[in-house]
């Protein structure tokens, strides 16, 4: 069943849950309320404090700014929007000169940079336990500039069913879809392909426990980012931030105007050539086949690298060109060996395309 964390209920988080989400102890939360009037949570019939999403976000922002050196007296009375603007300015002031150049801010002073307003994002998650994990991160200081709407389905199959039954939902795409899969198989790859067909321009990421190399290659070929489920909290937070701040079009932008030469050898052909006996008194055929396997994997991977700026995209385009140029050269060399050995070319008829 879909859950939306931005429903306008009076208050739904108890103080213990808020402490886990913000990293502020229960005792400190109570002091902030009584001494600084940071928030005014409602009370349940049983006398429990109940915090809203906005109050949780405010507490997380105040914690981050306080750790950054801002006094409680100067920030306790600020609204969430004002706190976000202060976080934005703080990040600009603390950025290095190199970062400012990258962000095209080198000709401005930090005082001249105006707060552009919070970024509204929607994240759809599918997979057991993923919703709770992301919920603990979404109010973090690192995501201060993002107002995140978080929705979930139990698993990928349920998400596909919902998209199939509601075309308007498929058209109103979320900013990002994060899918958790314990182990990949033919069915999960089929479902991921169906998800991409429903959402051709959406940012889709997959968190997995176990997957084979060719399965990961298949997911990347669909324009999906993949990570193994060994991420620490900080690594997960950094990945989540990159996913949310990346423009959805970045998935396809990297492939525009990029025409790479068709492959001569399929993955099956390379696997075959890497292990056959041959008349050449060395292991060059095997080595060439192994190098080509790596080059083709990197060629595909370079199409879907994270690009947060035109400079990033240009770099990845260059890497992609280098990869397919080297791949084509090595293929020609391997083809010479195939012809020298007199191998039946029908083995290579079913070439995989990029």
Number of strands: 8
The averaged pLDDT comes out at 77
* CATH-defined architecture of the largest domain: 3-Layer(aba) Sandwich
CATH uppermost class of the largest domain: Alpha Beta
**Main sheet specs:** 5 strands, parallel
Structural class by SSE content: alpha/beta
Number of helices: 16
> Which homologous superfamily in CATH is the superfamily of the largest domain?
Response regulator
How many domain units?
3
Strand content: 5-15%
The oligomeric status of these chains comes to single chain
- What is the CA-CA span between the terminal residues? 37 Å
Q: What is the chain-wise order of helices and strands?
A: EHHEEHHHHEHEHHEHEHEHHHHH
Q: Quote the CATH topology of the largest domain.
A: Rossmann fold
Distinctive features:
354 residues, alpha/beta, Multidrug-efflux Transporter Regulator, Chain: A, Domain 2, Rossmann fold, 5-stranded parallel sheet, 3-stranded antiparallel sheet, 16 helices, 50% helix, 12% strand, elongated, disordered C terminus
């Amino acid at each position: 069943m879909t859950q939306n964390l931005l429903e306008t209920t009076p208050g739904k988080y108890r103080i213990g849950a808020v402490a886990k989400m913000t990293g502020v102890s229960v005792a400190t939360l109570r002091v902030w309320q009584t001494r600084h009037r940071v928030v005014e949570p409602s009370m349940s019939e049983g006398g429990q404090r109940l915090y809203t999403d906005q109050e949780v976000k405010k507490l997380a922002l105040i914690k981050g700014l306080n750790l950054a050196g801002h006094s409680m007296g100067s920030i306790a009375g600020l609204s969430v929007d004002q706190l976000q603007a202060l976080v934005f300015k703080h990040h600009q002031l603390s950025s290095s000169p190199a970062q400012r150049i990258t962000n095209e801010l080198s000709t401005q002073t930090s005082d001249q940079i105006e707060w552009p307003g919070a970024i509204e994002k929607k994240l759809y998650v599918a997979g057991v336990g993923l919703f709770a994990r992301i919920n603990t991160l979404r109010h973090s200081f690192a995501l201060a500039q993002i107002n995140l709407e978080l929705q979930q389905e139990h698993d990928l199959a349920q998400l596909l069913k919902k998209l199939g039954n509601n075309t308007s939902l498929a058209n109103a795409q979320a900013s990002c879809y994060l899918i958790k899969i314990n182990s990949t198989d033919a069915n999960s790859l089929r479902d991921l392909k169906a998800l991409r067909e429903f959402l051709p321009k959406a940012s889709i990421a997959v968190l997995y426990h176990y997957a084979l190399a060719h399965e990961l290659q298949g997911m990347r070929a669909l324009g999906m980012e993949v990570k193994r489920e060994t991420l620490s909290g900080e690594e997960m937070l950094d990945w989540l931030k990159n996913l949310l701040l990346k423009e959805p079009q970045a998935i396809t932008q990297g492939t525009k105007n990029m025409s790479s030469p068709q492959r001569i050898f399929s993955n099956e052909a390379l696997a075959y050539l890497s292990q056959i006996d041959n008349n050449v008194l060395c292991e060059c055929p095997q080595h060439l086949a192994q190098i080509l396997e790596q080059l083709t994997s990197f060629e595909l991977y370079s199409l879907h690298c994270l690009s947060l700026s035109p400079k990033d995209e240009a770099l990845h385009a260059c890497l992609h060109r280098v990869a397919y140029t080297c791949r084509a050269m090595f293929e020609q060399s391997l083809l010479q060996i195939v012809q020298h050995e007199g191998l039946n070319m029908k083995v290579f008829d079913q070439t995989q395309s990029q």
